[in-house]
Design a protein that fits this description.
Blueprint (H helix, E strand, L loop, with lengths): L1 H10 L4 H7 L6 E3 L2 E3 L2 H20 L2 H19 L5 H21 L3
Antiparallel strand pairs: 1-2
């Protein structure tokens, strides 16, 4: 349950409009010298926020790293319209369930 609460915090109030928009490779940020691609930094920062929650909740740096990679890939798929919002959320929930299985199995 704590992992789902962490996900809800990181994906909704902590995401904000800037992250929600500019984590997509389709969006360009209007910088002083013109449009700039910032998505790798923004998407990585968003995934790191999620990874931090997983690490803090589970105590496993390895599960935090797994969350970082999984969240980055899943959100990239959503930003590219390869999956929709619902698939995105279910995949994130599936990852949290997998982290619990790994913890219970003592693999972390």
């Amino acid at each position: 349950m704590a992992l789902l609460i962490g996900h809800a915090f990181a994906d909704y109030p902590l995401q904000g409009d800037f992250i929600a928009r500019f984590k997509s490779y389709r969006e360009k940020f209007d910088g002083p010298a013109g449009p700039v691609m910032v998505w790798p930094y923004v998407l990585s920062a968003h995934a790191l926020i999620h990874a931090g929650f997983v690490w803090a909740i589970t105590g496993s740096v390895w599960l935090g790293v797994c969350e970082l990679v999984a969240h980055w890939i899943i959100d990239l798929l959503k930003c590219g319209d390869w999956i929709d919002f619902h698939a995105d959320q279910w995949m994130h929930i599936g990852c949290k369930l997998l982290w619990v299985v790994v913890l219970i199995g003592g693999v972390s």
